[in-house]
Design a protein that fits this description.
This protein is α+β, with helices and mostly antiparallel strands. It has a 3-stranded antiparallel β-sheet with strand order 1-5-4. A two-stranded antiparallel ribbon has the order 2-3. It has helices at about 10-20, 25-30, 35-45, 45-65, 95-105, and strands spanning about 1-10, 80-85, 90-95, 110-115, 120-130. The longest helix is centred in the middle third of the chain and has 21 residues, at about 45-65. The chain has 5 helices and 5 strands. The model has no long low-confidence stretch (mean pLDDT about 95). The chain has a single domain, classed as Alpha-Beta Complex (Ribosomal Protein L22, Chain A). Transfers the 4'-phosphopantetheine moiety from coenzyme A to a Ser of acyl-carrier-protein. It catalyses: apo-[ACP] + CoA = holo-[ACP] + adenosine 3',5'-bisphosphate + H(+). It is an enzyme of class 2 (transferase). It is found in: Cytoplasm. Its main location: cytoplasm.
Length: about 140
């Protein structure tokens, strides 16, 4: 059964402007431990790729916070929600700390899709109760 749905569109130019003003501190506030490593690797190769990566993660976390109905209130935090890539390339949500405990206690599972183009990143998240799915 669907618990919640969230979507978000992010202007990549705004993320670039924020990075320029605040430096990497902005990325460190938004990204979890694995994500910050990927961000730095991508940005070192091609700056725009790193910025697009940050924008998709920002967008996905916004969509996830909407799908779980908390917004950015505890236990939802930027860094406790990571968007990682499975071996297949499919994006997945990895949770940490209090957010992970809260999510598991409710018996939830999440599905995420992210996409970006030159100026925009978008994400869509569906959260459902465990065991729900095709019959």
């Amino acid at each position: 059964m669907i618990y919640g749905i969230g979507t978000d569109v992010c202007d990549i130019r705004r993320i670039a402007d924020t990075l320029q003003r605040r430096g990497e501190r902005f990325a460190e506030k938004v990204l979890g431990p694995h994500e910050i490593e990927v961000f730095r690797e991508r940005r070192a190769r091609v700056d725009a790729r790193g910025i697009a990566y940050l924008a998709t993660r920002f967008s996905a976390k916004e969509a996830f916070s909407k799908a779980i109905g908390l917004g950015l209130r505890m236990p939802m935090t930027w860094r406790d929600c990571e968007i990682v890539k499975a071996a297949s390339g499919k994006p997945e949500i990895r949770l940490h700390g209090e957010l992970k405990a809260w999510f598991e206690a409710k018996g939830l599972q999440a599905h995420v899709s992210v996409s970006d183009e030159t100026d925009y990143a978008t994400s869509f998240v569906v959260v459902e109760t465990r065991g729900a799915g095709p019959a």
